[in-house]
tRNA pseudouridine synthase A (Geoglobus acetivorans), 257 residues
Amino acid sequence: MLRVAFKYAYFGWNFSGNQFQPHLRTVDGEIFRAFEKLGINARERRYRIAGRTDAGVSAFGNVFAVNLDSFEPWFLRVLNSNLPDDVSVWAYSVVDGHFNPRKALSRVYRYVLPDEGFDVEAMKNAAQMLLGKHDFSGFAKACRPCVREILRSEIEKRGDFIIYTVEGNAFAWNMVRKIVTALKIAGMKSDPEIVKLVLSGEHVPLTPASPYGLILIDVKYPFEFKKDEKIYGLLQERIQERMRKFAQLYGIFRFLR
């Protein structure tokens, strides 16, 4: 029996999250169905995922692991042929039999939001306050205490958009989306102090930002994954197709008047 880790991507807006839920369309559900078509019950083969994402959240480099009787690289193409076009399993690594993908070195998320006239410098200062180890209870849901370490927290402006990239050892439920809400408030008020207040334990109501701007970019481990170039190329084409579609929709509504 081999344990194999797979890196996978999905477009999250048509899913009720990635964790399996009966009677709802989830990423896990689609992966389970693909394995079942190959005669494999993934849930009975210690299927584990690195990170749970909410409904609407996308991923480029999430990771799952499963036990297989045997494995050859061509298995990726067979597996992908049984998946819908909004899920792509694009890399693999044969790992230790005890490997748990949740025990990662770090996770990298990115959030994209339209620039509504935010004070970008205030947002940058607020983002820097998150670096290091803190209790993030005020930014999380159902997590008390909630000690996490943030390794990277960066704001940059690109055209009409503001990009927030954050890397940490782990993230709690809604944590990134609540951080984004705090950064938006800092940008609207030109004052980064809201982050300091939340980290100090002061109660500040924060509604999670929309899930549609969030993507799990990568999950890092002390080993490398082997990329299937053909599947990776097809994934890039699928990304380009969706970029064209949403660029047209953006243009329609932006230039409506």
The domain at 2-103+221-244 is CATH 3.30.70.580 (Alpha-Beta Plaits). Helices lie at 27-37, 75-81, 120-128, 175-189, 193-199, 229-254. The longest helix spans residues 229-254.
